[in-house]
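Below is one such protein, fold included:
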Amino acid sequence: MPGASTCALPTAQTGKESSSLISTPTPIANSTASPPQKSCGAASRKPGTLRPGIPKPIPCSSPTTPRGGKRPRYYQERAIQAALASILQGQKRVLLTLATGTGKTFIAFQIAWKLYHTKRVKRVLFLADRIILRDQAYGAFEPFGEARRILEAGDDLKSRSIYFSIYQSLYAGDPPTYKRFPPDFFDLVIVDEAHRSGYGTWRDILDHFGSAVHLGLTATPKRDDNIDTYAYFGEPVYRYSLADGIADGYLAAYRVYQVRTNIDKEGLWVEDEGKLYTTKDFERVIRVPDRNRQIAKHLVRTLQATGTLTERTMVFCVDQEHAREMARLIQNEAAQLVDLPDYAAAIVSEDTEARSLLSRFQDPESPTPVVATRWTSSPPVSTFLRLRTLFFFVP
């Protein structure tokens, strides 16, 4: 709901807020799926939707899993099969829509692995819009070994097979990095987070490699603000929803609570400017330190009241500066309750420590950071959603 500071607490209750600035949180929605019960899923139910006309199985003989690797789950196998079938039938734009946390990068690796080892593609480009997502994909494609290369701005090395880059790097330089490669250099372009990538400024890159198969990955179903994604790729060849993942036990069930500050309810009037600022302006047009402090205080009190003070928690923020500020404020609020100097940390892609912090946050054996503040509209939470993780959104 616009204008609300929302916290999603998996199966947790939240206590009343004593501060007059924060309204009492009330539940506004529960997940409709029953509590997760782990099963392989394939034997009992087959959620997910194949686009009509997709044959199964498809004629691609390469092993699905490299030696010693993990095997795909049943819905991942169906997504792999659906994408491969479409590609082998000559489809040049292919879209997979699967909920966050269901392993889209792993699916993309399996597709690339099969096509590469059956000599249906020679070169692959994995395209992301964040360095941290690019690096995660590079790690997920580790079985390709020395065939991999991260493509930085100005790089024109053409002796590798599997490339990873971000739009900003490919667009940089004179001439732009992507123009240093022939239009037919790549046979397969994987577009990560396709709902927010590849349009506007960066569309030139996709057009340049237009002869390649473009495989889009997204967690976002069709809606008004991403209609261009579906116009470009067409309808998904396979869908696997959040409800499917919860019902199968691969994702955690959740409850959503809405919390609004008085400033969000009433707006902030600035007399000198003769202007009323509202939630859509906060931390974008105008910084409101008191609002951030109250939100941080409420968050820490909520964690304490629900017995989840040491549970992994993510706080999604407006921008990188906002993420750093919220991490500092949460650390200060928690200092009197926990003796952890790095209890809260900002994980933003521009920081050199981002990858290390994210790895520690994902590692259940690492005591810190407990709270991660992030700036991203669709965080890489494939590990987190399988844990008992709390999510807070500060609009």
Summary: The first helix runs from residue 74 to 88.
